[in-house]
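dude i think i finally got it to work??
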Amino acid sequence: AGGVTREEQRVRQPPPLGFGGGQFFIARDWWKLSQGTQTSLLVFGAGASAGVASKTAVAPFERIKLLMQVDTSRRSVVEVARHVLEKEGMRAFWKGNGANCIRIIPNKGVMFFSHDTIAAYLARDGQEPTVGRRLLAGSLAGASLVLTTHPFDVAGARIRAGVCASGVGMIGVWRDIVRTEGVRALWAGFTPSLLGIVPYTATTFFVYEEVTRRVRRRSSDGHVGTGTKLLAGAMGGAIGQTLSFPMDTVRRRMQVLTQGVPLAHRPTTLAVAKGLYAAAGVAGFYRGVSINFVRALPSQGIQFLVYTSLKQLIDG
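look at this
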């Protein structure tokens, strides 16, 4: 008497979340996790959500950019877009977006979580972060995401480039790569990816933080508006993409154009870069850069806006 019955416990207990009635998802025991673990998972989820929102919004530009990077016919943006529309239809502009979102969930989750964690560690002395520390946090965040998610990037690039059988998903692409090219092929283009992502993430985070910091200081209430966040993210993305685009082109060519080539005969990063320069000069490294700016500006703006908005909800 006076105790809590099993039925009352069931009613009071929060409903299980996740698929399978919560049996296969950690959210069933969410309230048992420490506050630090909950915050870490929420930050990861905020970064993943920001990545999915931004990638889906600009998927058509992403596909056109990739096709131009691996194309040797030197077609214009309009010609590539018209070819996709006529041959494959409107939905083809989102071809590979599902695989890209699967890639971007761990990609952006790791990137934002790593950046926030590293930045907090570097600022543990309580002092204002220096320029060097802020650039280091962005650089290490970029390196972290490449180390943990590169196979997703390889599979997504091949699907969007249309070099895989129609309807093949991420797992199918991985299976084909391992069977025909070996496990090491999942890391094709790793070196240029790492060389390109480090300056990209360092610059993007630094510019976004610097712009919003200056606006916050000048604001009477310290508020940074939605428009400012979008603009700051777009500016950071534009500068970061400009610095990293040549290596991004080399990376895509190594991921897509080496399909089926035995590992022993695959060209190195330097060989691919030399071959591209010999065939198209410096301009070859910037094939698709115009459409990339159209893609990157809204993409980065949306990404930072969604992430910071969700992060504010997490922080309360």
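Residues 196 and 247 are 5 Å apart (CA to CA).
im so relieved honestly
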